[in-house]
Structure formats: structure tokens, C-alpha cells
Amino acid sequence: MSHNGGTTSQQLAAIPDTKPDASVRAYAPETQAIHADDHLNTNPDVAPALHVSTTFRYTEDPEKLRPVGDDSESLDESHIYSRVTAPNTTRLESILSTLLKGRAVTYSSGLSALHAALVFLNPKKISIGDGYHGCHGVVDLQQRLTGMKKLPLDCAAEELGPGDVIHLETPVNPTGLAFNIQKFAEKAHSRGAYLVVDATFGPPGLQDPFAHGADIIMHSGTKYIGGHSDMLCGVLATQREDWWKVLLDDRTYLGSVLGSFEGWLGIRSVRTLELRVRRQSDNASRLVAWLDAMVSGRPDQTPGNDAASSSANAALVRKIVARVAHASLQHDDKAWLDKQMPNGYGPVFSMWATSEAFARALPSRLKLFHHATSLGGVESLIEWRRMSDKGVVPTLLRVSVGVESWEDIRDDLLQGFKALAGEATS
Ligand SMILES: *Cc1c(COP(=O)(O)O)cnc(C)c1O
After folding, report:
1. Distance 263 CA to ligand 1 centre (A)
2. pTM for this structure?
3. In total, how many domains does the chain have?
4. Which of 130, 138, 170, 173 to mutate to test the pocket of ligand 1 (most atoms within 8 A of CB)?
5. Mutate to test the pocket of ligand 1, among 222, 225, 233, 262 (most ligand atoms within 8 A of CB)
6. Which pLDDT tens digit goes with each residue over 177-231?
7. Range of the domain at 388
8. Which of 270, 302, 328 is the last residue of a domain?
9. Residue from 419, 397, 421 nearest 176 by CA
């Protein structure tokens, strides 16, 4: 069969190996995010093209045809069918593999990534804390199918056996508090069990769970990896090549692949991951320091907060906010926490209002925060958390800090508190 340009079609269906040149590993993450997929460039485009094809032409050289079942090469050299691999998602996986320091596999959502991890590991027991409510939905499904037993996160190590799983979310939803990854890795490994870390709240740039003993890293790529509130995505990463191959194979039959458009958006997004996440995390820490100083009466050391920290403002904040939680406030955990999160403590924090009425009303009094669930986008979000999680107290507000000027967000919160306090007294 003849078609336009013979070899060109082969070049476009680029080699689906996600492994970048070894030299790329020497670069800093910001550089890797721009160049980890250079080995997949086969045409002059600077911005990668969006490939929508579900099927790809086989080689025109009959000698090179590898019939199904012929494993003389572990991976075919070109894409075949998009439920297996496709150019945009492979390119995204190549960048994520470098940033996560393992082999990354993408999925249609964070929950489908967790599902794939449980199908693969098939533990008899899973030790899991509160965390993101949706993960418990997946665990419950697996329980229904396999009888897997659910244990609390603080279960005794002796309750775990070989092949079991500790599922650790850190920082954890909704509070943004962090757990010691190494401690849980040692606990799991002492029993021949595995540690899966849901690192959605602490993406590359903030923490590297493999450095502290994680066996699998899971992400809802919908959040920071996507970063623009416009793509659903899940990611698993492993440092074991044998596990990676099985995960890829399993995904072909689970069918929970990331769409090509999402793969394309994801590439656009990860280019700026480091910039966004560091800025958002820094913004969050400044806001939390200010709020905590106001609520607790401790002095705020944050430069630039002097005017906003007047005693009148402190009284105002205290009228609306009872308590703030964020990993930056875990003063007693600094010894391990500063090793685990050396570049910042994550962009999500929680605050408890002094009444349910205030928690319910605050989001609608703010101008720079959308009242919406989710997190990780460049825009600041606030959520009265009872809207999506029935397991939390009705005074809880979850905040996902965006890339706006933190002084502007702080002042917006302040005017929101003022509006609520005024309504309460009038
Ligand atoms: C959002 C989220 C998930 C689920 O991810 P989806 O992409 O929505 O499926 C899992 N874990 C955490 C911590 C999350 O924030």
C-alpha cells in the first residue's frame, strides 16, 4: 500500500519507550520538564502535535513485522492501538518518568490509577487512613471482589503480611497535614508488605516518595500535574521495570487509558509544574502563617504582613476562624518533614470556621476564590467541604491556593471575614 511519504508515517508513530537519555537525569527538574521528551521529537514542531488516531500503520518492511506472540523484542517499535500506547500519552509518561524518578504509567483518572495498583498488587489486607474519600470507594470495590481486609493506618505492623499494602496519602486530604513516608515504608517492608503513596498533594518539586522508601507513587494528575482544572488524569510510578511492564499490560485490559487530548494537555501542563507548585506552596505557607498568627495570637514573622496583622484584624479573623491546619504548622515534625518536603509544604490547607453558618457563607463572600471542589489548578479554590465529603465536620473549609499574588488572596480573605462579621452584628 502506498501512502504519503512512507517513512514519515513511521516517524510520527514514534518509539513508545518512555525512557529518556541518561543525560537528562543530570538536569534539574525544571529543565527535565522541558527536555525529558526531546528523544521523542521526530519532526520540527516545537510544541508537540496532538495525535488523535486510535490505530497506527504497521511497518512496510515485511521482515520487521512481529506477529502477536513473537516476543523477540519486548516492545514493538511503533504504536499499534491507542488502548495500548499512543504518542501524546507516551510523551507525557516520558516526562513524568523523569520527574518522578521511576517508570510512570498514566490512567484516565486518579481513581483508575489506584484501581490498577490494587488489581496489580492484589493485597489480602490494606492499611489506609481517612484521606481522600474517593480512594475508599475504590478500596470498597476491591473488597467486594476479593474480600481484601481494611485496616487502619496505625494498625500494628504484625497485622500485615507479605504482599499486603499500606496506602499512605501525604500530605493528606483535606487538612494538608503530612505523614512520615519513611516510617511507613519501614513498617511495610518489615512485614514484606508494600507502600503505595498517594502523593497528589505533594507533587514533584515538593517531595520524592521513592527517596523515602515508597514502592509505588500514585497521583491524581487531575490536580497539580494538570494544573489548569481542565483534565482528568491518574498516574502510577514504580522503580521496578518488571512491575512497570505488568502495569502497562494490565492497563491494556482494564482499558483505563488517558485520552490523547488529555495526554497533550498534560505535556503542556508539566512544562510549568515546578514553577506553579513552588509558587502555590509558597503562597499557601504565607497565608497559613498569617492566619495562624491571627488565630493563635502568636507573632507573624512573614515579611509584608505588618499592616494586615493589626490587632483589629486579628480580632476579626478570630471571630470567623477557629483553627488552621497545614504541614507548615507541624513544628514538632520538622526533623523528618524538612527532609521529606524541603521545598515547601503543599498548596492545600484547611480551616475550621467558628460556626457552620460562617463556613457555609464565606466562599460566596470572596472575589478571588472559586467556590468549587478539587485543587491543584492555577486559580485559588475554597470549598465548604460538606459539599463533597459527608465524613467531615460542617465547619470545615478546604483551601487550594493558586498562583495569584498572595497579598491579594490574603486581602480577599480579610474582606470576606469583614463582610461576614458585619452581617453577623447588623
Ligand atoms: C482527587 C484525588 C484523587 C482522585 O483523583 P481523580 O483524578 O479525581 O480520580 C485521589 N487522591 C487524592 C488525594 C485526590 O486529591
Report:
1. 17
2. 0.93
3. 2
4. 173
5. 222
6. 999 999 999 999 999 999 999 999 999 999 999 999 999 999 999 999 999 999 9
7. 275-425
8. 270
9. 397
